[in-house]
Specification:
With 383 residues, this protein is α/β, with parallel strands linked by helices. Strands 2-8-7-6-5-3-4 form a seven-stranded mixed sheet, sandwiched between helices. Strands 9-12-11 form a three-stranded antiparallel sheet. The longest helix has 21 residues.
C-alpha cells in the first residue's frame, strides 16, 4: 500500500544516520558513554510518583482537552513569576509534549498564499516535518557564528515574509544555546505583526542557564500577545521526558483555533499527569538543583576544552575540522558517542550546511560520567 509521498521528502533523522556512520566501527572502549541524545539523566522530582499514585483512579476519566483548572493555574502562575507577564487561562493549552504542538501549528496556519514556513538551520526535525506536511515550503535560515547562532531577520526579503504562515524560533537555541535578546525579540514580533504571520518560539530550554535567565517572547510582548505563541516543556526543566508534558500559550485567537484542531486530532494529557505537571510548575527547588548540576558540567568543559558557555541549554556546539571523522574517531578510540553537526541541519539554498564541521555534545549524564567523557575526548579535540 502506498503512503503519503511527503514522507520521502523528510530528511533522515540524525540518530539513524549516526548509527549507519558507526555501524562498521567497533567502539574503542568497553565502557561506552553516549552524549548524543538530548534526554536528561538527572533524577526527576520524587514527588511525581506520589502524585501519580494518589491520582491513579482518575486514569478512568477522559481528560479535558483544555486542561484541568489546577494545571492551567499552575502554568499561569509560573509564567507570571518567570516572565512578569499576565495571561488569561484561555491563552494556555497543555500539550502532550511540545513536539505535538510544534507539528500541528503549521497545519493550523499554513494556507494558500501563506505557504512558507521559516525555520532556523540547524533545526529541530519537527519544524521541517511540520512545514512539509502542511504543504508549505520550508525556508531554512542559516544560524552561524556570524549571525549569533540565530536567524538573521534582516536577510529575509519582504517577498518571503509576505508569504510566511509561521516562523519557528528556538531560544535558547538547539544546538548552539544562543538566547535572543530584547532587541531581537522586538524585531521578530514587529515583523510578525507587520506581515501577519505567527511567531512560534520554542522555549523548552528556558530554565537551563548558568549566567542569567534568558528573556522570553511573551516577556517582551508584554500585554499584547497577538501573532506570538510560545511552547514550553517539563522534559528538560524537570527531567521528565517520559511524562510528555508541556504547554502552548499566547495569542488567544491561535490558542482557540488550536484547541479546536486538537479536539479532532490531538492527544489529551491524562488527569494524573496533569496533576503531576501542575506540581512541577509550582516547584522551583528541583529546577535550581538541575541548573546547579549543569553549571558544574559546564565548568568542567570550560576547564578541559576551553569552551565559552552558551546562554542556555545543555549542549556544547564545538567546532572541528571534520564532524563525521571526529565522530568516528571519538567512537573508535574512546568509546564516546557524539553527533555530527551536519546531521542537525540541511543544505541551504547556497548549498552550505551550517552544521558541518561542528559536533554536538549533550552534557546530560552525571557529573562523574561527564568528567570521564571529557577526559577521554579532550586530547583529541585539543588537537
Amino acid at each position: 500500500m502506498e503512503t503519503n509521498p511527503t514522507l520521502s521528502q523528510l530528511p533522515d533523522y540524525p540518530f539513524p544516520r549516526l548509527r549507519a556512520l558507526l555501524a562498521d566501527h567497533p567502539p574503542g572502549h568497553a565502557d561506552i558513554i553516549d552524549l548524543t541524545l538530548g534526554a536528561p539523566r538527572h533524577p526527576p522530582p520524587e514527588f511525581i510518583g506520589r502524585i501519580l499514585a494518589k491520582e491513579f483512579d482518575s486514569f478512568g476519566k477522559y481528560p479535558p482537552i483544555a486542561g484541568s483548572t489546577a494545571l492551567k493555574q499552575a502554568i499561569q502562575a509560573w509564567v507570571e513569576r518567570r516572565y512578569q507577564c499576565t495571561l488569561a487561562p484561555a491563552q494556555i493549552l497543555p500539550l502532550v509534549g511540545t513536539r505535538e504542538g510544534l507539528f500541528m501549528l503549521a497545519q493550523l496556519c499554513a494556507r494558500p498564499g501563506r505557504d512558507h514556513v521559516l525555520l532556523p538551520n540547524p533545526f529541530y526535525p519537527a519544524y521541517h516535518a511540520a512545514a512539509l506536511f502542511s504543504n508549505a515550503k520550508a525556508v531554512l535560515l542559516d544560524c552561524t557564528e556570524a549571525t549569533g547562532f540565530l536567524p538573521d531577520l534582516n536577510a529575509v526579503p519582504g517577498s518571503i515574509y509576505e508569504r510566511t504562515a509561521l516562523f519557528y524560533l528556538c531560544s535558547p537555541s538547539n544546538p548552539q544555546g544562543a538566547a535572543a535578546d530584547r532587541a531581537y525579540f522586538e524585531q521578530a514580533i514587529a515583523l510578525a505583526r507587520q506581515y501577519d504571520f505567527l511567531l512560534v518560539v520554542d522555549e523548552c530550554y528556558a530554565d537551563i542557564w548558568t549566567q542569567q535567565a534568558p528573556l522570553g517572547a511573551l516577556q517582551v510582548a508584554a500585554t499584547n500577545q497577538s501573532n506570538v505563541v510560545v511552547v514550553h516543556s517539563l522534559s528538560k526543566r524537570s527531567n521528565v521526558p517520559g511524562l510528555r508534558s508541556g504547554f502552548i500559550a499566547g495569542d488567544p485567537s491561535i490558542i482557540k483555533g488550536f484547541e479546536k484542531l486538537r479536539s479532532f486530532g490531538g492527544p489529551t494529557m491524562p488527569l494524573p499527569v496533569q496533576a503531576a505537571s501542575a506540581a512541577c510548575w509550582e516547584d522551583i527547588a528541583h529546577v535550581e538543583e538541575n541548573r546547579r548540576l549543569y553549571d558544574a558540567k559546564f565548568s568542567l568543559a570550560e576547564d578541559m576544552l576551553g569552551i565559552t558557555r552558551p546562554d542556555g541549554g545543555f549542549f556544547l556546539w564545538f567546532p572541528v575540522e571534520d564532524d563525521e571523522k571526529t565522530a568516528v574517531k571519538l567512537w573508535t578510540e574512546h568509546g564516546v558517542r557524539i553527533l555530527p553537526g551536519q546531521y542537525l541541519a540541511s543544505d541551504s539554498e547556497k548549498g552550505q550546511n551550517p552544521g558541518r564541521n561542528y559536533i554536538r555534545i549533550a552534557l546530560v549524564d552525571t557529573i562523574e560520567r561527564t568528567k570521564l567523557a571529557l577526559e577521554r575526548i579532550a586530547p583529541l579535540l585539543a588537537r
